[in-house]
Design goal:
Blueprint (H helix, E strand, L loop, with lengths): L33 H21 L6 H8 L3 H8 L2 H22 L10 H18 L1 H6 L4 H4 L3 H17 L5 H11 L2 H10 L4 H16 L2
Helix pairs in contact: 1-2, 2-3, 3-4, 5-8, 5-11, 8-9
Protein name: TetR/AcrR family transcriptional regulator
Organism: Streptomyces galilaeus
Keywords: DNA-binding
Length: 216
């Protein structure tokens, strides 16, 4: 990504634009030199193999360096830390998700009523999260990073914008945090894997929550 992130949308700024944010840090430039791009792809391929063979828990900076036959320092220079490496692995699916809710077909994309788009956002996120849950859990940032990452801010801004349209009298910013809490990967892990909650029940619960908030 460019060193400068696009400005956060204000309350009246539409988010339905083509700009997509990466999960990784601002140092992940889109126009890497050819050799640097090859090295980055090689490291991500090695990390993806480790995830497939050992799960996300098997992905360490040392293991990736060994699998890619490079020094550990190379991995740290490219991704910063383990969280940076794992978020880079998630980047492709995140960009596809952003493209869908920012400019894809309705009801997830523009063209549907705000409440309908809110329902579709949560259902799509839940399905993606359950499919990639181990990786999402491993990539969870600490308290100082979890709510300030560009992607989290984009998700929050998108939900807040839809809430302002669907429930003009509500505190859209706080309610957007509440909705994102429902989509928290550790909570999804607890409900689905520890409690055996069917994914369909989570989707129904999300729809019910959106309807109660928006009065739909």
């Amino acid at each position: 990504m460019s060193a400068l992130l696009p400005p956060l949308p204000g309350p009246e700024t539409p988010l339905d634009g083509p700009e997509l944010l990466q999960l990784g840090s601002a140092e992940d430039e889109p126009c890497l030199r050819a050799d640097a791009a090859r090295n980055r792809a090689r490291l991500l391929d090695a990390a993806a193999r480790l995830v497939a063979e050992h799960g996300a828990a098997g992905v360490t900076m040392e293991a990736v360096a060994a699998a890619a036959n490079v020094g550990k320092g190379t991995v740290f220079r490219r991704f910063g830390d383990r969280t940076g490496l794992l978020t880079a692995l998630l980047d492709h699916s995140e960009r596809n998700f952003q493209a869908a809710f920012l400019g894809g077909p309705p009801p997830l994309g523009p063209g549907a009523e705000p409440a309908e788009r809110l329902r579709a956002f949560g259902v799509a996120y839940l399905r993606r999260a359950i499919e990639e849950l181990d990786l999402l859990l491993a990539a969870e940032g600490g308290p100082d990073r979890r709510f300030t990452s560009p992607v989290h801010r984009l998700h929050h801004g998108h939900l807040a914008l839809l809430l302002r349209q669907a429930a003009p009298d509500a505190d859209a910013d706080l309610l957007a945090h509440t909705l994102l809490g429902y989509l928290n990967p550790p909570l999804i892990h607890h409900l689905v894997r520890q409690c055996g909650t069917p994914p369909a029940r989570l989707e129904t619960g999300w729809t019910d929550l959106v309807d109660r908030i928006t009065g739909s």
